[in-house]
């Protein structure tokens, strides 16, 4: 008993000085025991949005924004923003990616402050969740128009969009907006599929065609495009010849098996140079053992470790936008596909140009 009494002043000191507890509460449920939580710990003397820590606020409480960040309506004042694009109307097989953004946000409550790489995004940038594009689920062309117009406004502010998909169709209107601001961009495209189809069932806009449309419109700097993880059965003996003819580098999944992708990313960084780069990561690049919740799975894919190596290998590049697409929650009752997606999105945030590293 005497020992406990002697410890009390010490505990109070730790609360004040180690946990940065101040009088600024964050609303209902912010007092746990005698400890008042604050969403804004003092970091580097700057005030950025800092998600509440699960040390003070229960993970499962609150409205599910990405990484439990504050929500705001527009990208004004932000260095980077998470945006959801909940569509699955471009998909060719299993649907369900319209639920992707919500499930990724729900699983993102496990995210903390720092990456294992030492990256400290909440100390480096103002980041928020700006909600979802108000998509049209009955008209894919109109959905693309709405996405393009929304992203125009986002990139006009200088904010870097980090997109929660949604099927891969969305990369096309996003890249229209991004290229309008930055000119033709380099592309790191991680996927089981090339997504360079032309016309499917009479439609030019589907989740299998975005990058052909992008090439046709001059949105890509084709010598600075790499496609990683491509695999599966093909319609022709060399399914990726069109990509190579455009000048893309194609890295098939077979070339990634049994390997660290750190050396590959050294080459990719050299290929990308200093110009603007967009990162588009289709969760089906990963093996369906790790990410079964997706619409067009292919066996023998990348591991989550290789996914991290690719994203972490983007550090130093002039990234102007990123997306994580094709998460279809109904096909993964465990939630692990969305959990993986949430972590990959966090790692993308961690390699944006402004993110500092310890
Ligand atoms: Mn894809």
Describe this structure in words.
By secondary structure, this protein is of the alpha/beta class. Helix content is 29%, strand content 16%. It contains ten helices and ten strands. The protein has helices at 2-17, 100-107, 140-156, 171-182, 210-216, 241-246, 253-256, 262-272, 304-312, 336-350; strands spanning 31-32, 35-36, 80-85, 127-132, 160-165, 185-190, 220-230, 249-252, 276-282, 318-325. The strands form two sheets. It has an eight-stranded parallel beta sheet, with helices on both faces. Strands 1-2 form a two-stranded antiparallel sheet. Helix 5 links the parallel strand 6 (185-190) and strand 7. The protein is globular.
What topology does this entry show?
Layout: H1 2-17, E1 31-32, E2 35-36, E3 80-85, H2 100-107, E4 127-132, H3 140-156, E5 160-165, H4 171-182, E6 185-190, H5 210-216, E7 220-230, H6 241-246, E8 249-252, H7 253-256, H8 262-272, E9 276-282, H9 304-312, E10 318-325, H10 336-350
Parallel strand pairs: 3-4, 3-5, 5-10, 6-7, 6-9, 7-8, 9-10
Antiparallel strand pairs: 1-2
Helix pairs in contact: 2-10, 3-4, 4-5, 9-10
Bound molecules: manganese (II) ion.
Manganese (II) ion binds at residues 168, 191, 193, 195, 282, 326.
Quick take:
This protein is an alpha/beta fold and 358 residues long. The chain is built from ten helices and ten strands.
Which key terms come to mind for this protein?
358 residues; alpha/beta; two-stranded antiparallel ribbon; 10 strands; 29% helix; disordered N terminus; binds manganese (II) ion; Agmatinase; metal-binding; agmatinase activity
């Amino acid at each position: 008993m005497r020992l406990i009494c002697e410890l009390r002043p010490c505990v109070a000191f730790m609360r004040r000085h180690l946990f940065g507890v101040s009088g600024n509460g964050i609303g209902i449920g912010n007092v746990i025991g005698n400890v008042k939580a604050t969403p804004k710990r003092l970091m580097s003397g700057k005030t950025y949005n800092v998600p509440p820590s699960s040390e003070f606020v229960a993970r499962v409480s609150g409205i599910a924004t990405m990484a439990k960040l504050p929500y705001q309506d527009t990208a004004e004042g932000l260095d980077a923003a998470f945006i959801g694009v909940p569509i699955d109307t471009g998909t060719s097989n299993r649907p369900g990616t319209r639920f992707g953004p919500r499930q990724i946000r729900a699983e993102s409550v496990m995210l903390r402050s720092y990456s294992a790489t030492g990256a400290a995004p909440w100390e480096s940038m103002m980041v928020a969740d700006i909600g979802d594009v108000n998509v049209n689920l009955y008209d894919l062309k109109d959905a693309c128009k709405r996405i393009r117009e929304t992203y125009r406004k986002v990139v006009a502010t200088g904010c870097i969009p980090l997109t929660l998909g949604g099927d891969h169709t969305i990369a096309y209107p996003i890249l229209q907006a991004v290229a309008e601001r930055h000119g033709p961009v380099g592309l790191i495209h991680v996927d089981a599929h090339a997504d360079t189809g032309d016309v499917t069932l009479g439609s030019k806009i589907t989740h299998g065609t975005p990058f052909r449309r992008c090439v046709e419109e001059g949105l890509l700097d084709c010598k600075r495009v790499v496609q990683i993880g491509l695999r599966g059965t093909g319609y022709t003996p060399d399914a990726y010849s069109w990509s190579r003819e455009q000048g893309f580098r194609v890295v098939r999944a077979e070339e990634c098996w049994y390997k660290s992708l750190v050396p590959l990313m050294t080459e990719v960084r050299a290929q990308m140079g200093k110009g603007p780069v967009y990162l588009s990561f289709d969760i089906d690049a990963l093996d369906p053992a790790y990410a079964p919740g997706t619409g067009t799975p292919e066996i023998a894919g990348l591991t989550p470790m290789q996914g991290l190596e690719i994203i972490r290998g983007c550090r130093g590049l002039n990234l102007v936008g990123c997306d994580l697409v094709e998460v279809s929650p109904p096909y993964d009752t465990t939630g692990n596909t969305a959990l993986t997606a949430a972590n990959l999105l966090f790692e993308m945030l961690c390699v944006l140009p402004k993110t500092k590293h310890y």
